[in-house]
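Incident log, structure service

09:12 report received: a user says their structure output differs between two submissions of the same chain.
09:20 pulled the input from the user's history:
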Amino acid sequence: MHITSSARTFLPLFAAITLASSAQAQTHEHPSALESAAPGVVVPSAEAKQAFTLLKTLAGRWQGPFLNPETGKPVTMEALFRVTSRGNAIVHEMKGAGDADDPAKYDHPVTMMYLDGANLILTHFCDAGNRPRMAARLSPDGKQIDFDFVDVAGPVSHGHMQHVTITLVDSTHHLEEWTWALPNGKTMGARMELHRVETVAALPAK
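09:34 re-ran on a clean worker, output below:
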């Protein structure tokens, strides 16, 4: 797999991994992540709806530095938020700034956020080939959204994403923290301080 030079060490969290040939599924106990699995519970909680509304305000293109742990130098990452499906889903895409949309050459993980029952759910379609799900918690001040691990499908012999935190600073700044769980129980974290470079109105249609 080719790895873009601009995101050389960030991408091990997503795709700079030799994937196992056999698929497997893994489930972790997380009793507080999903509010209720009872049949008929379809109404989102007030907290889930508030968090979803806040995330929609991030629609647009964002860029920011990521500290390369090998060189100690920052590289520029890009995040794109799009509200889609008549407002029922948010698409989050991430890649090295300036990299082409070429899945055969560059890593470009996609994450979907949507209301599911009482919860706001995040599903991360990782370049590593697995799909972890996480459920949102909103901080009391309404500025930080934590996505806690629920379960994962796909190959996980080299680990998987297990936690995401998005902190809204102001209309032109937000923070993203992505945590990768290794098979040995340890974790690796990636933090991006992002600033808005395009609003949703300026983005090309897809």
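09:41 both user submissions now match this output. Likely a transient worker issue. Closing.
09:42 reviewer note: DSSP finds one helix and eleven strands in the chain. Residues 67 and 74 are 4 Å apart (CA to CA).
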